[in-house]
């Protein structure tokens, strides 16, 4: 009987402890944070993507949003390699690089090839320039300025840290840049200002510096757990403003690989020989490395 009484007392004691320290409510248990792996399965190998940024609001616009007004031009040209085994690799290509088409006596700027033959002609020229394997770049993405603004505004804003205050005004374009220096949250319009700004003393280098800052800031923002959950819907909403041969699933797969390394990006540039005011097109500097773009990382 004493044994039975002890068991009953023990059970009663456990019940009393349950009243004092009740089982935690599952509804308030911490929710597992999303990671880039939740977006999609990353690609099994490196994928090259040619990003073509236009100076019009949308790829289909007949006129640009620049001065002088006219047909849309390539405003930014990035060759991106998404690596499942390592960080993103980005090669900035100068749009004013002189290239010569077969059968043509005069060179044209690399960026002009988009107007002459669309993404296919531009991709062919980039393949030869960078000595890529046949079939690369495998994917392309053409976007106007409104897509960049919509992407940033869809994220709410992004954190960026311009080293200096940026000031510029162009009445012919009804466009102005007015950004403070230092760490701040930027809206879509402000990010466009940052991406377009050119320091008069070093116009090409400064613009590439700012484009790199925008890329790093976007990657950092999209990799946040609170943002990962909405990326699928955001990517889908942006489809109407881009021209691409990427599917929705492929886009999310590339994002999963790129964001898994945070804002770690290996940027490269094509060094140009000194130019002149009378000749807007530029040549590759003799000191340029070979190859122009480092090889992708190998799997461990």
Short description:
By secondary structure, the chain is an alpha+beta fold.
What features would you highlight for this structure?
single chain, Aminopeptidase, two-stranded antiparallel ribbon, 18% strand, alpha+beta, globular, 300 residues
Main-sheet strand order equals 11-6-1-2-3-12
Content of β-strand: 15-25%
Please work out how many helical segments DSSP would assign. 8
Gross CATH architecture: 3-Layer(aba) Sandwich
Helix/strand structural class: alpha+beta
What's the story with the biggest beta sheet?
A: 6 strands, mixed
| Broad CATH class | Alpha Beta
Secondary structure elements and their pairing?
Blueprint: H1 2-20, E1 47-54, E2 74-82, E3 88-92, E4 98-99, E5 108-109, H2 113-130, E6 139-143, H3 145-155, E7 158-160, E8 166-170, E9 175-179, E10 184-186, H4 188-196, H5 203-222, H6 225-228, H7 231-238, E11 242-244, H8 248-259, E12 265-269
Parallel strand pairs: 1-6, 3-12
Antiparallel strand pairs: 1-2, 2-3, 4-5, 6-11, 7-10, 8-9
């Amino acid at each position: 009987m004493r044994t039975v009484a002890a068991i009953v007392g023990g059970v009663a004691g456990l019940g009393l402890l349950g009243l004092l320290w009740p089982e935690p409510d599952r509804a308030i248990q911490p929710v597992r944070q999303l990671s880039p792996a939740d977006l999609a399965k990353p690609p099994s190998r490196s994928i090259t993507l040619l990003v073509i940024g236009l100076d019009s609001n949308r790829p289909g616009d007949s006129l640009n949003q620049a001065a002088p007004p006219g047909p849309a031009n390539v405003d930014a040209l990035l060759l991106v390699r998404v690596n499942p085994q390592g960080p993103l690799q980005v090669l900035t290509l100068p749009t004013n690089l002189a290239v010569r088409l077969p059968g043509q006596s005069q060179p044209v700027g690399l960026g002009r090839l988009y107007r002459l033959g669309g993404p296919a002609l531009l991709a062919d020229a980039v393949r030869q320039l960078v000595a890529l394997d046949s079939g690369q770049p495998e994917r392309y993405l053409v976007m106007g300025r409104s897509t960049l603004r919509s992407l940033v505004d869809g994220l709410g804003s992004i954190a960026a840290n311009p080293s200096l205050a940026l000031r510029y005004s162009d009445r012919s374009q009804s466009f102005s840049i007015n950004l403070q220096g230092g760490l701040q949250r930027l809206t879509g319009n402000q990010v466009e200002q940052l991406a377009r700004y050119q320091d008069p003393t070093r116009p090409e280098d400064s613009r590439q510096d700012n484009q790199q800052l925008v890329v790093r800031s976007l990657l950092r923002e999209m990799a946040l757990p609170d943002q990962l959950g909405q990326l699928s819907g955001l990517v889908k909403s942006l489809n109407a403003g881009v021209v691409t041969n990427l599917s929705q699933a492929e886009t999310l797969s590339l994002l999963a690989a790129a964001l898994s390394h945070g804002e770690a990006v290996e940027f490269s540039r094509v060094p140009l020989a000194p130019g002149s005011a009378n000749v807007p097109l530029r040549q590759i500097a003799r000191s340029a490395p070979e190859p122009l773009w480092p090889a992708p990382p190998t799997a461990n």
